[in-house]
Amino acid sequence: MKYLVIKCGGSVLDNLPRSFYEDIVKMHEAGEWTPIIVHGGGPLITSLLKSLNVQTTFVNGLRVTNHEVLDVVEMVLSGSVNKQVVRNLIEVGGNAIGVSGVDGSLLQAIPTQNAETLGFVGDVTGVNKKVLEGIISQGNIPVISPIGIDASGQRYNINGDIAASAIAKALGANLCFISDIPGILVEKNGAKTKLDKVSKAVIEEMIDNQTIYGGMIPKVKAAIDGLVHNIPEVGIINGFDKNSLIDYTDGKKVGTKIVLDEEIA
Q1: Segments making up each domain of the chain, as ranges
Q2: What average pLDDT score do residues 59-65 get?
Q3: What's the pTM value of the predicted model, to 2 decimals?
């Protein structure tokens, strides 16, 4: 059995077509790949914070999270968004169970290095695989909201890309980031061109020259960290293209494949 961790950002979730969820269910039923979904919910969190007159800011693509923000983040991610994804899978004939990283201490976390600036933003130190294995063994697709917890019961806002990478590392799974663009785009001769394959060194250079910026930074950093620690392959694909996920699992050239430098030759 091969695992595929599928990360869906909040910016694409609201508009993903029915065919995207149908592809996940087809993959699950075929049995060769076991899908695990990790989702974000940033735009909905921002919208609710705004309606509550709670200020929100970002540092390098990560949301600064105090107690008040953390309550809203958990409510949106583990409530509204998580159950929306589960409903969408059930609607197309799938079986899915939604959990938070808090449930069963699925995502064990500690404060991130910049905690004095970022507040209750966490890094994942451990993944309770038994929670996922239990859901999967019952024939269900796990749907995970990225809230972490430490041994004292403190919650942490975990960037969805970082959570997805941690889960993929724990399972030795392939990792696929779902986007609304075909992959990593660069400008060549005045036109945007998709990179079929990109290395760690090139990504670091693109961060330095700000070709990659904002919310894409934690995504590609999570990808590189995962490749160094047990993840066989990382891809960024367009979830709006019909069959893109199936094409990816079939090994077809789709999206951008992120690799370590020695694989580029």
Answers
A1: 2-263
A2: 88
A3: 0.91
